[in-house]
Amino acid sequence: MNRASALARRALRGFAMFWWDFLVGDTPELFVAALVTIGAVAWISQVVHSNAGAIITLLVLAIGALALSLWRAQRGAKPRRP
Amino acid sequence: MIATTISSGVVVLVGAVFLACAVEMVEALTIVLAVGHTRGWRSAFEGTGLALVALGALVAILGPALIHVPLSVLRLVVGGVLLIFGMQWLRKAILRAGGLKAQHDEDAIYRETVAELEGLGAGVNRDRVAFVMAFKGVFLEGLEVVITVLTLGTSAHRLGLAVVVAAIAVVGVGIAGLIVARQLSNVPENLMKMGVGVLLVSYGTFWTGEGLKVRWPDGDVSLALLVALYLMVTWSMVTLLRRDAPLESTKEVAR
CA nearest A21 in B: which residue? Predict the structure, then answer.
């Protein structure tokens, strides 16, 4: 019984680690941005009832998240000034 | 109109699945070739075979199960996952094209894997190290393919087509890879990864919108417009990064 539960715990931990690495990994900003995007678009689409607003928000936030993540990477790659 | 609608969705689906499978297959094949050349082919093929069976079982089990999830929920979840996954792929590809990240080099990976395996001593008839290494290489690279096939296939209600395209890509690249053996570095892998990134982000954006009850103008035709938009964005970002590329010695800092 103990062995089985240990095995189940290990499998569950491995499963969670896989999804963490897959979705968050070394770019947590993209994960957070996707959640923010979904929340914002859901609100605009279903509360404000603006279809065009929802489409524009979705595109702006998705492209903005990518640009932000690239800017972070670029900043990390630039040589520091003395 | 109907033909255009069907074809744009199908073309993007087929393109995304084929490119993703081909790219991951090249990466997996590099590991299998290194294992086979260094420690013998028997265990390398056994590890590869078992990994392919495990991946096939995942598709066979999860695919039909996902079809029972309500479509709007499925599309929102799939859209969100593809949006994140696609942005990760695209980010890496843009950083590589912009000179901020080293290009993916199959020759270097092959040399590293061979050196690692040679350091572990000679293999015997049934080589456990070779088996595990081939299994891990194929299974881990294949998991991304499975997720791509399942998410794109189920949300577009074309799981069968996605599986067939994936199988064609895997078999095609496998045969080509075995024939050309150590010439895998000639595959334009970085460009292919950029293409996959663009297609996944486009699908992710589209399904996220669909899942949130957004009505796209012209239905599925919008998918082709999204691909064009993200291609332009990618090109702009690569151009900007190339202009501001840092000194050669600092390139590897970006992840």
Answer: B85
Question: A with B: how many residue pairs have Cβ under 8 Å apart?
Answer: 101
For residue B92, the chain A residue with the least C-alpha distance is A70
Best mutation target among B84, B210, B218, B222 (most A Cβ atoms within 10 Å) is B84
Query: B253 near A73, Cβ under 8 Å?
Result: no
DSSP B29-66: HHHHHHHHHHH-HHHHHHHHHHHHHHHHHHHHHHHHHH
Q: What is the CB-side half-sphere exposure of residue A73 using CA atoms within 13 A?
A: 29
List CB contacts of B254: < 8 A, sequence separation 6 or more. A73, A74, A76, A77, B95, B100, B101
Position A10 in a domain: no
Q: So where are chain B's domains?
A: 2-245
> Residue-wise pLDDT tens for chain B (255 aa)?
444 445 677 888 888 888 888 888 888 888 888 888 777 788 888 888 999 899 888 888 887 787 778 878 888 888 899 899 899 989 999 998 888 887 766 667 777 777 777 666 655 556 788 888 888 888 888 888 888 888 888 877 888 888 899 889 888 887 877 776 656 666 677 788 888 889 889 989 998 998 999 999 977 788 889 999 999 999 999 999 888 765 544 444 333
Residue A50 falls within a domain, yes or no?
yes
Q: How many domains does chain A have?
A: 1
**Residue the block writes with tokens 């936030």:** A61
Structural domain boundaries, residue A62: 24-82
CB atoms A70 and B241 under 8 Å: yes
Mapped onto helix, strand or coil, the DSSP state of residue B145 is: helix
**Which long-range contacts (C-beta less than 8 Å, at least 24 apart) are formed by B240-244?**
B240/B98, B241/A70, B241/A74, B241/B94, B241/B95, B241/B97, B241/B98, B241/B99, B241/B100, B242/B97, B242/B98, B242/B99, B244/A74
What is the ipTM, given to two decimal places? 0.86
